[in-house]
């Protein structure tokens, strides 16, 4: 079978703006060809050709006078929609994505990056360098759910989590390097607040997830932690994505109690 014959369904749709528009419009509700011609940009002959091509490809089916999607068409439409969202996400903050290393995220979550659509890239100003840290702390204190991943040592994080976890339990993911830095500041031990679970993992991203907001920081392309920039999101799908990312990392991490370092409850 030639490469032309093996052309992907998604590429077939997205290689034509008219075919893509027809597929996405029919996904919203069945429609006649005349309805499509009245609602969509493009020539009437182009839309007639697109419906015929999509039907031949097995993506559209005709029920009476109306077109609707086949099961295959439904799948392709989902992929096309995700591509559109990803493109919108990358376009909205292209400078950030150009200079930061998305491979710090597990592959499964890179493929779902469009869930962050609607997020803001917040950069610390020279006039208020602690502004983003203060915002994260405020959100953590107000939240009943606390999940934090720290690839570097944050001097005040321990105190913040002790305050936050006084009422609700929390979870903290840290790297081996952070463990050693904590021990250096605490007499060789890792202090563990009573209501806080700690695990050790090789995470390369910083993450904080609260009840209704997430904060994500990726390293720059040279591998350096970026303390001045955060991806801040408050959409439901963004929070779900961030929590899934944390849970994925948490399941693969080692509980601090099983790690070969002395700990003490505080």
From TrEMBL:
Q: Which residues form the Methanogenesis regulatory protein FilR1 middle domain?
A: 133-251
Domain HVO-A0261-like N-terminal, chain residue ranges per copy:
10-82
The protein's matches in Pfam families, at most eight in alphabetical order, are given as: FilR1_middle, HVO_A0261_N
Which protein is depicted? DUF1724 domain-containing protein
């Amino acid at each position: 079978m030639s490469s032309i014959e093996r052309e992907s369904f998604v590429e077939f749709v997205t290689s034509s703006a008219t075919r893509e528009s027809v597929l996405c419009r029919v996904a919203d509700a069945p429609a006649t060809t005349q309805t499509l011609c009245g609602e969509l940009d493009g020539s009437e002959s182009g839309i007639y050709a697109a419906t015929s091509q999509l039907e031949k490809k097995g993506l559209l089916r005709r029920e009476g006078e109306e077109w609707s999607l086949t099961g295959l068409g439904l799948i392709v439409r989902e992929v096309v929609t995700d591509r559109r969202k990803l493109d919108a996400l990358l376009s909205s903050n292209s400078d950030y994505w150009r200079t930061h290393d998305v491979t710090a995220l597990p592959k499964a979550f890179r493929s779902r990056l469009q869930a962050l659509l609607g997020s803001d890239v917040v950069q610390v100003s020279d006039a208020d360098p602690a502004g983003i840290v203060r915002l994260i702390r405020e959100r953590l204190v107000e939240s009943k759910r606390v999940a934090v991943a720290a690839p570097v040592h944050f001097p005040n994080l321990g105190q913040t989590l002790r305050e936050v976890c006084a009422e609700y339990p929390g979870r903290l993911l840290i790297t081996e390097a952070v463990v050693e830095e904590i021990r250096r500041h605490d007499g060789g031990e890792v202090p563990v607040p009573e209501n806080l679970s700690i695990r050790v993992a090789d995470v390369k991203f910083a993450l904080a997830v609260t009840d209704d907001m997430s904060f994500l920081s990726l390293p720059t392309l040279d591998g350096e932690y970026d303390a001045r920039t955060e991806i801040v999101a408050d959409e439901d799908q963004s929070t779900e994505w961030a929590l899934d990312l944390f849970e994925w990392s948490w399941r693969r991490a080692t509980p601090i109690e099983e790690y070969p370092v002395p700990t003490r409850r505080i």
